[in-house]
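Progress note, sequence design subtask.
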């Protein structure tokens, strides 16, 4: 060959530029993205540097106060743009995630799969043993781990306390979407497959790796995660980056992509315990009605969200590289909803006035 050195350089550049893993091409890290170190240090940026309308910020804060918020944060590229606390709440105090914590369970399930402990396409009884429900064995064996992730187990959703006597048959797994607490059995699947308790596995494989604080507390109906607002924001930032934290793959990217993609055709606005915006129709907890249109019309069409009772929220906007956190009491105490509420649309109207 006339130019062997040049050929070698070109070959090496092709190999480096197309690095792959077992899951496909490795995405180059975003040089503009910031990941806060473990501790209290966290870089900030200003609304003016983002050309936001600062004259609308007070109206946003007033709305948050009027709707019983305890805390609110906006991150862009990982940096704090807004961080507000209300009603005596502080940055050091934990608050309940309620069903927004389902996304933590989804993530931990994915980690258990990437660690070779489970396969989400296997039936749940492979991990919990037969007769974990109060159903005929034939129907029980239709329920896979994926069905628990997608709310399509077919188990009665009117009984939210997850005890065997309440886990009764309504429909074949995969044929009906219904929002319920049976997702908690995923925690048992992780615990059984890892030979540890769920919280220990979660702490070692997720919480400690991204610098979260917080704890799981057994509530009246299901176990609820509590943390500071910044820890909720850390998980939002991990999600914004498709499971990667400062170059380390915490959640397999292909699994996280499945988490935030329509997981079934019955309710396309639901992934693996994540809510998805911008779809043509959606369903809500405690109903079998199908509503036409987008989940939160005022929010970005590609937004995904962790949603919990009393309006605990993580909103992830991939286009603007933005994470929004809201914690607090129910915006409407007379209607403390399980997840989706009119609060989301009203809040995004205020956010849009600031950021657009």
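Output:
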């Amino acid at each position: 060959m006339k130019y062997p050195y040049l050929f070698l350089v070109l070959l090496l550049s092709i190999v480096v530029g197309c690095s792959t893993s077992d899951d496909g091409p490795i995405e180059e890290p975003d040089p503009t993205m910031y990941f806060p170190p473990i501790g209290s240090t966290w870089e900030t940026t200003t609304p003016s540097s983002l050309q936001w309308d600062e004259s609308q910020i007070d109206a946003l804060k007033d709305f948050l106060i009027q709707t019983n918020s305890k805390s609110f944060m906006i991150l862009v590229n990982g940096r704090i743009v807004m961080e507000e606390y209300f009603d005596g709440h502080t940055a050091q105090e934990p608050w309940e995630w309620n069903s927004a914590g389902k996304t933590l369970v989804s993530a931990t399930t994915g980690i258990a799969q990437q660690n070779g402990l489970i396969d989400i396409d296997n039936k749940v009884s492979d991990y919990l043993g037969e007769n974990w429900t109060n159903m005929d064995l034939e129907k029980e064996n239709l329920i896979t781990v994926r069905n628990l992730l997608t709310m399509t187990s077919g188990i009665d959703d009117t009984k939210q306390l997850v005890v065997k006597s309440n886990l009764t048959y309504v429909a074949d797994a995969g044929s009906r979407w219904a929002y319920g607490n049976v997702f908690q059995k995923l925690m048992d699947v992780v615990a059984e497959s890892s030979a540890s308790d769920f919280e220990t596995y979660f702490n070692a494989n997720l919480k400690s790796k991204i610098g979260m604080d917080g704890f799981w507390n057994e509530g009246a109906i299901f176990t609820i995660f509590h943390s500071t607002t910044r820890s909720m924001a850390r998980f939002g930032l991990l999600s914004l980056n498709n499971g990667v934290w400062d170059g380390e793959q915490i959640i397999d990217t292909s699994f996280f992509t499945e988490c935030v993609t329509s997981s079934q055709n019955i309710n396309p606005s639901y992934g693996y315990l994540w809510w998805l915006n911008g779809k043509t129709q959606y369903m809500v907890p405690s109903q079998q009605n199908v509503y036409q249109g987008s989940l939160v019309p005022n929010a970005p069409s590609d937004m995904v969200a962790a949603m919990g009772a009393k309006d605990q929220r993580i909103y992830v906007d991939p286009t603007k590289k933005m994470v929004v956190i809201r914690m607090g009491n129910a915006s409407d105490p007379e209607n403390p909803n399980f997840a989706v509420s009119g609060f989301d649309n009203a809040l995004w109207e205020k956010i849009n006035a600031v950021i657009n």
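The domain at 48-355 is CATH 3.40.710.10 (Beta-lactamase). Work on this subtask will continue into the next period as scheduled.
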